[in-house]
Amino acid sequence: xxxxxxxxxxxxxxxxxxxxxxxxxxxxxxxxxxxPKGKFARYRDIVSAILLVLLFVFPFIRIxxxxxxxFDILNRQFYIFGAYFSPSDFYLFAIxxxxxxxxxxxxxxxxxxxxxxxxxxxxxxxxxxxxxxxYLVEGDRNKQIRLDKQGWDSEKVRKRLLKWTLFAVVSFxxxxxxxxxxxxxxxxxxxILEGPSESPTIFIVLLIxxxxxxxxxxxxxxxxxxxxCPYGRLQGVLIDxxxxxxxxxxxxxxxxxxxxxxxKNEDRNAVGKGDCIDCDQCVAVCPTGIDIRxxxxxxxxxxxxxxxxxxxxxIKVGLPAGLIRYASENMLEKRTKFKFTPRVIAxxxxxxxxxxxxxxxxxxxxxxxxxxxxxxxxxxTLENDLVVDEYQYIFINKTTEKKKLNVRVLHPxxxxxxxxxxxxxxxxxxxxxxxxxxxxxxxxxxxKKTKEEITIGIFDDKGQKVDEYKTNFIGPSKVRF
Length: 481
Ligand code: SF4
Ligand code: SF4
Known about the structure:
Blueprint: H1 39-57, E1 62-63, E2 66-67, E3 69-72, E4 77-80, E5 83-85, H2 90-111, H3 114-118, H4 121-138, H5 141-149, H6 154-182, H7 185-194, H8 200-220, H9 223-228, H10 230-233, H11 235-238, E6 245-248, H12 250-254, H13 268-271, H14 281-284, H15 305-317, E7 324-327, H16 329-333, H17 342-364, E8 368-374, E9 381-383, E10 386-397, E11 403-411, E12 416-419, E13 425-428, E14 433-443, E15 451-460, E16 465-474
Antiparallel strand pairs: 1-2, 3-4, 4-5, 6-7, 8-10, 9-10, 10-14, 11-13, 11-15, 12-14, 15-16
Helix pairs in contact: 2-17, 4-6, 6-7, 6-8
Bound molecules: iron/sulfur cluster (2 copies).
C-alpha cells in the first residue's frame, strides 16, 4: 500500500522497516483477509478436511486393543501406531525427533514452507475453521471492515457475540481433542460422565487450554507464525535462491516500466509495463497482511490465497495466470527449471540414513526389555568353588499380553542365575516393569579373567529367546605375584 510520505522510488522498500500487522506507533493493525477462492483454495479445503477428520478420528482407533496414538505424559506411556513405548525407549523418541527436524529441514530447503500452508494445525484451524466461522457470521472482508468501524449497535453486538461464542465452543472442542491424545478417549469419556466436581484439577486445566486456544485463534492469530513459531524464524537460514516458495514473478510482473493500473485497450508490452495491474487483490487476501510482491518474507505462510486471487485477476484481464506461483528466485530470475542443489542432496542423504536407523531400531526393539546392573558397592562372595555376584534386574513387558518367561545364562554355560523370590521363571503383566535382585554363580575354574563378560538370555514359554543382556561378572583377582 502506498505511503504518501515516502518518495515513489522507495515505496516498495518501506515494508522492510514496518511490520505488516502494526501501525508506525506499534498499535496492532488487524488483518481483514478477503475470503480466498479458486483452485488452490479448493485443494486446501479438501486437504484440511481430511486432516481434521483424521485428527478427530485417530484417538478412537485401536490396534490390538492399543490406542493408535497416545501421549500419556502423566503415566509415562506412549503409543505410536499402536506400539507401546515406555520411557526406556526415549532414545527412539530422540532419534525420531532428529529425523523429523531433518525431514522438515530438507523439505524446507527444497519446497519452502509447504508444511505451514498445507499441514500445520495452526494454519488449518485458523484458516479453515475459525476464519470460516468469521466469514459465516460477519461476511467477507469489506463487511468485516464495515462492522468493525460501526458503533456497538444491535447488529454488531449480535454478530460479535455469536462469533465469540462459536469460537469459545470450538476452542473447548480442540482442548478436549488435545486431552484425548494425552489421557485417552476412555479416560476422557469417564471424566466427562463423572463431571467437573470429580476431577476439578483436570477440568481447570481443560478450561485453561480452551482459553489459550481462544486467545490464539480469536486474537493472536497470524502473530503466532510471525513472532512465536521457531520454524518460521528459521526460514532465513533454511531457504536459498533455489527454494521453491510462493513467489511473485517480478520479471513478468514489473516489466521494464514497472507495475501499473489496468487500462482497457492499452498495449502494456509496447510501453514496457509489467503484467501486475497493481490491483492489490493479493494483499487483500493475505491472512498475514503482507505484499508478496516485496519478495520472500518471514510472515508468508505459503497459504496460496494470493495465487488464487492473482489468477482470478489475470484471467479477468486476459493475461496468463501464474503471475504468483510456486517458484524459486533463480527460476524467476534466470527463467530456469527446478534443480536439486548439492545442499539438498546432502540433506537428503542424511535424512535417508536417519530414517534407516530409526526403522531398524524399531525392528530390533525387543518386546521385553531386560537389564542386569551390577549392584553398586557389592563384592563377589564364595560358595565352596562357586563365585557369586549380585545384580539388580529390570524387565519391562512392552506388549499387551501377560508373559511367562524364564531366564538362563548363555555364556559361560556353566553359570547359573536365580531371581530372588522367583528362581528362573517368572510372569510379568502387560506394560509392567518387574525389578528385583538376581544372583549369578560361576565355578572358579571357569573364570579366566577378574572381569568376565556374561550373557543372560530371556525366553518365553515356547522356548523363543525374547531378549538378551550382556554384563560384567567381577570375580577374584587373577593377578599373580
Ligand atoms: S503472501 Fe500469499 S501465500 Fe504468503 S501468506 Fe500471504 S496470501 Fe498466503
Ligand atoms: S493480484 Fe496480481 S495483478 Fe493484482 S496486485 Fe497482486 S500481483 Fe499484481
